[in-house]
TrEMBL record:
SUPFAM superfamilies: Nucleic acid-binding proteins, Ribosome binding protein Y (YfiA homologue). InterPro entries: CSD, CSP_DNA-bd, NA-bd_OB-fold, RHF-like, RHF/RaiA. CDD domains: RaiA. This is HPF/RaiA family ribosome-associated protein. One of its GO terms (cellular component) is cytosol. Residues 116-182 form the CSD domain. GO terms for molecular function: nucleic acid binding. Pfam families: CSD (PF00313), Ribosomal_S30AE (PF02482).
């Protein structure tokens, strides 16, 4: 890290063991992404009169090239956050996931989903539970009743515009839609 780790404690003393635990978690984050420029962690003890025990809040702010990652683990209704170690673990797990996502994006490993295509229903066989849609290139794609979302297969009419995704590979009827949404 370019800047030293900052750890702050609010409404509680700063236990050395907890500081060491946080330093270990930060070191682990650096194994996932070695270009963290700075990190600050705030641990806060919150008191709630209607509960037994103290609840802890942990926030982590990481700065990496082109992004700032911010994670908060708030007690809310989670009684697991009465254990400071669990709260810290959960917060750093969330930070690790965001950091791994960022690293994948930087490497170009992020899977890009193809946008659903738009087509038009050209033939329906309601008694048999299937039909066909025409793509913008004029090809036909098989549509089974189970692939239709929204209003459902029975509401489809010839000429209806639909958004669809084609299943990889071909079925017995040729290309087959895996998801069809009436527009």
């Amino acid at each position: 890290m370019q800047e030293p780790l900052r750890i702050a404690f609010r409404n509680m003393e700063a236990p050395a063991a907890i500081e060491e635990e946080i330093r270990d978690h930060v070191a682990e984050l650096e194994t996932f992404f070695d270009r963290i420029t700075n990190c600050s962690v705030v641990v806060e003890a919150r008191h709630h009169h209607h509960r037994q025990g103290r609840l802890f809040h942990v926030s982590i702010r990481l700065t990496v090239p082109e992004r700032e990652i911010f994670v908060q683990r708030d007690p809310a209704e989670d009684h697991a956050h009465e254990d400071l170690h669990v709260t810290i673990r959960d917060a750093f797990a969330a930070a690790r996931r965001q950091l791994q996502d960022h690293a994948r994006e930087k490497r170009g490993d992020v899977k890009v989903h193809e946008a659903p295509a738009i087509g038009r229903i050209v033939r329906l066989f309601p008694e048999r539970g299937y039909g066909f849609l025409a793509t913008d290139t004029g090809d036909e794609v098989y549509v089974h009743r189970n692939a239709v979302l929204g209003r459902g297969f029975d509401a489809l009419r010839v000429g209806d515009r639909v958004r669809y995704v084609v299943k990889e590979g071909e079925g017995e009827q040729g290309p087959q839609a895996s998801t069809v949404v009436p527009l």
